[in-house]
Every structure is written in structure tokens, then in C-alpha cells.
Amino acid sequence: MKKYYWKTWLRPNYLTKATNDYVAEVATTGRTLHNQDIARQYVEMGSELQYETVLDVLNRADRLRREKLQEGYCVQTGVCHHAPQIVGSWIGATASHDPELHRLTLSSVPTAEMRTALGEVGVEVLGIREGGAYISLVTDVTTGLTDGTLTPGGQIIIAGDRIKIEPVKGEAGIGVFLTDGVSDDYPVTPLAINHPKEIIALVPANLPTGTYTLFAVTRYSNGDRLLKDPRRITYTTPLIVT
User: Is the pTM of this model over 0.85?
Assistant: First the structure.
């Protein structure tokens, strides 16, 4: 018997023409853990170490891992193997690094221990979520990737349903934003395409490295109808700038 279960919604796959094609979306809204949460749970498990000590160790370990990845090392934890990776085309054997063409990122794959742990996870399908507003996928146009990586200054394609930004002008707080949960929200503009099922927008060129959550705020409902109050639509997959 499975010990763990991922609660999962099925959403229509708008990238194909098939009417019975769906993609799975694990229900992770409000279920993101940070070092503070891990440290707190570690202490609650019965550790003799103080919360502040555990949190300091976790933060220092993260800083050391980041530094070693900057130096070009691979880093393996008990969860994932991280390796430096450069995305982009190099023309000619003597081509030099061009930040406009080559994106430095990481390749992360589950370790053998994590793959074994995933074998203990079952899937509980909650049903098909066709109605309502949602964001199903974000694609980085520069790299063509949908793995959550973002290119500052590049465009992204936001797919979903009922995500059209209205009104476009004249109301504060309406639009597409990225937030790290700490600093101010970063507007993602301009809206090159602003449709109910697709938005193409520009990522801020000065976006600092870090992990972000993308969300849209709109009064759009359906057709020409507008909501009385703005609605916030959050993309549940974390987005990363390295």
C-alpha cells in the first residue's frame, strides 16, 4: 500500500488539438516549504539542537552549495544531483560566451534515493478542472524550456484559461507579476499578446537571481464580462532566475 499520495488535478492540454488530452497538475498551492519550515519540523521531531542553530546550518549549507556550483562543481544531496549547464547555440569552434545567446543554468535530476522514495508515492486524481481561471504552463521563449527557468529581459508565454488582463490601463495592481515573497512585486510587461488562454509578456531585465512565484491579477471573467473585484491567479510551479 502506498504511504504517500499526490493530490492531482487534470487540466485540458491546450498545446494539442485533441479534445480528450489532459495534463496533470499536482495540487501544491500553499504547500511550499522554506528552510525556516524545515528547521522548525526538524526541531519538532525531537532534535536537541535549537531552531536558530538548525536554520543557520541549513542556510550555510545552501550558500556553500551555491558557491561550489558557481565554481563549476556538481553538487549532490540526498534529493537531487545538480550540474552546471549552458543553454544556447555556439557558432564556430572559437566562439566566445555571449550572455545574450548563452544562458547559464543548472541540470537537476533526482538521486537514486529520491527515485526510490517516489516509488512509494501514489496519485489521487481529484478530477478534471476545466472551469475557472488558472495558469497551466509558463514557457521561456529564449530557451524554449518549461522547467521553471526564466531569462531576464526575455519573453515568456503564459498558457491557461481566463487569464486575459483587463482592464489593461487605468487601474493599479492589474497585470502580471513575479514575487519572491520578500521584496516588492516585479511587473511582467508589456503584454505583446493578451488573450483569455495565452499571454506573452516581457520578464524584467533587472530581475535578481532567486526563486519567484508568477501571478496575474485581472477582472476578466468571460467574453465581455468583468468581475466586480480583481481576481488573483497564481502559477503553482516555482520560477527560477540563476
Answer: no
